[in-house]
């Protein structure tokens, strides 16, 4: 029997996105965001929700750009820190001992130490209540060559991203493969007739 927990933000798992943006003066900043994901195929787009009071909010709207930096498990401590501290009060990237560089296709910083980075042009934004959903058109995806599989695609076990469990308020790592997408379900095709 399932127990009702009422309306809560308990989708499992949620990503750990380090959202990179420049402030109005051009200083690089990173924030930790868990409310996000791919939201469109054509054009390829990703959504991330940001509260208005976050320091990154104005920078994203001002420059109409952001990056989504996917941290691996080795970056768990700085990733968490990026969600605790504000770029309004300190240089979080310097404090974490990490480095940024200018993205190639958009006016936003990318975090050099992250194995996978998505460069986004702000396509639209929607006020939802407590958050504003920023829709970014994906202009490029960059991945460390050491994190590619034999077909040239990112290998999730090599990227080794951290995941967030909102109810537990904890970070986790990816486990083992349980099946091939768009394949394992074929065993049930035609069984309803």
Automatic annotation (TrEMBL):
One of its GO terms (molecular function) is oxidoreductase activity, acting on the CH-NH group of donors, NAD or NADP as acceptor. Transmembrane segments: none annotated. InterPro entries: Flavin_Rdtase-like_dom, Flavoredoxin, Split_barrel_FMN-bd. It comes from Desulfuromonas acetoxidans (strain DSM 684 / 11070). Keywords: Flavoprotein. Belongs to the flavoredoxin family. The lineage of its organism: Bacteria, Pseudomonadati, Thermodesulfobacteriota, Desulfuromonadia, Desulfuromonadales. Residues 10-153 form the Flavin reductase like domain. It holds the Pfam family Flavin_Reduct. This is Flavin reductase-like, FMN-binding. The keyword Ubl conjugation does not apply. It comes from the Bacteria. Its cofactor is FMN.
């Amino acid at each position: 029997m399932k127990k009702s927990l009422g309306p809560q933000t308990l989708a499992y798992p949620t990503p750990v996105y380090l959202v990179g943006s420049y402030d109005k003066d051009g200083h690089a900043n990173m924030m930790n965001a868990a409310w996000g994901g791919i939201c469109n195929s054509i054009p390829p787009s990703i959504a991330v929700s940001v509260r208005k009071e976050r320091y990154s909010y104005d920078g994203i709207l001002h420059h109409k750009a952001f990056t989504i930096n996917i941290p691996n498990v080795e970056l768990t401590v700085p990733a968490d820190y990026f969600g605790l501290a504000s770029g309004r009060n300190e240089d979080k990237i310097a404090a974490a001992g990490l480095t940024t560089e200018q993205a190639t296709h958009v006016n936003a910083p990318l975090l050099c130490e992250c194995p996978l980075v998505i460069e986004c042009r702000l396509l639209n934004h929607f006020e939802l209540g407590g958050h504003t959903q920023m829709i970014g058109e994906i202009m490029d995806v960059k991945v460390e060559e050491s994190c590619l599989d034999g077909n040239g695609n990112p290998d999730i076990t090599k990227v080794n991203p951290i995941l967030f469990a909102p109810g537990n308020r904890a970070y986790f790592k990816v486990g083992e493969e349980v099946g091939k997408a768009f394949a394992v379900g074929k065993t049930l095709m035609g069984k309803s007739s």
